[in-house]
Each structure stands twice: as C-alpha cells, then as structure tokens.
Amino acid sequence: MFAEEELLPLSALQHLVFCERQCALIHIEQVWRDNALTLEGSRLHKRTDDEGPRREVRGDVVTLRGLPIRSLHLGVSGRADVVEFHRTALAPGSSGPGTSSSAGVTLSGLGGRWKAYPVEYKRGKPKKELSDRIQLCAQAISLEEMMGTEIPEGAIFYGRMLRRTEVTFESDLRQEVRKAAQRLHELIASGVTPRARKLPKCDRCSLIDVCLPRMTGSGRSAQAFFLEAISRSLQAEEDLG
Questions:
Q1: Is 186 exposed, middle or buried (0-12, 13-18, 19+ CB in 10 A)?
Q2: Among 27, 35, 133, 155, which residue carries the largest CB count within 10 Å?
Q3: End of a domain among 194, 211, 228?
Q4: What is the pLDDT averaged over residues 126-146?
C-alpha cells in the first residue's frame, strides 16, 4: 500500500510500457514536446480537461467524465476520460448510495444497480504493445478499489478508427499492470534515465529530438551519427542540384 503523497501519475504507466526512456524524460527530467500526434490526442481530451468532472444520465447509461481516480495498491492516481455505468437488476435487500457487489454499485439519486465500464480515448489505432490496455486496466483496478466492485471489461475509443475496441481485464493483463506499476516506482525512485535505443516506434515519439536515439543509442558513437548526418545533407544537396 502506498501513501497519498507517494502516488505517481497513472498516465505514466502508458509511457513506461511504450518506452522507459520516454517515461523518465517526462516524469524524471520533466521534458515534454508536442508533435502532430500528441496535439491530435490532446484535442480528443480537451472537453474533459476544460470542463472537469460531470455526470450525464441517458436512460440506462450514466456517464461520468473526468472522474478523479487513484489506487493505493498500485501507487497511481489520475483522471478517467469516461466511466459509463450501465443499469443492471438491483439485488434483493441492497440499497443506499455506494452499496456495491459483483452485480454493480448503487448511485446517489438513482435506483437500481450500475456496472462500471471505463472508456479511454486515444488518437490513432490499436497498438501492438500493451501500453493502452495497461493504462485502461489500471483505471479499472483503481475504480474497483475505490468503489468495492468488480469491473470485467472496458473499451478504448480510437480516433482514427472512430470506434471502440473492447478490452477484457483478464488475470494476465492485471498482472502486467501490477508489474508495470512496480517498475514505474522503481524507475522514478532511481532518478536515472535509461540509455536510448533506436527502435521503429521512435519515429512516432514526440521526444525524438530530445532523446536523439540515433546519436545516443547503445553502441552508437557521436562521430558515426554526425558522419551520417553530413552524408545525408550532401546527398540532399546533390538531389536538389
């Protein structure tokens, strides 16, 4: 269990799984740069960021936006983009705001039981790595801890596809979340930024010009980097001339 003052940003889990060096640059060295991809992602979150937490009720679905969440077990805190609550049958003998069970929770001012369903908004499309799914699952674990309920699944809405991808919070994914949370605390406590490694995914990272993976990657000398840069520049001049 972590104390409140020890909590780290939940979003850092996504950074960590994508790239530990990126995570350290952002959360240890406090470095950030935007590119077209991050700006597009920011636009998807702008409504929640500008307006803050709020509730919408439409029939059998209650939608909470910008809900503050935290997990003392994982040691993270943040805000959920969207948490939907879908109405289910109220169990006999259950009543009162906040009452919870595997059948869902009760919500203040509303009858019946409601099952939580977190939804994370991302630009682009589903990734091969687990980073997006780990972030969403961490939100579900946080909600379970806060509300005393069970959340078996959620979804990620991808802006490029304009549709949701459902995520089931199975035991293997939950274990990956716990491992990532532990590694995140170890990394931040160390205060050490890992060395760069040039990988294909580096090209879509907004910090590539700060990280300089082609120059600082393992086994990559500065001399070789600059010689290659000069060669590319000369080739470009020949192509133009």
A1: exposed
A2: 133
A3: 194
A4: 95
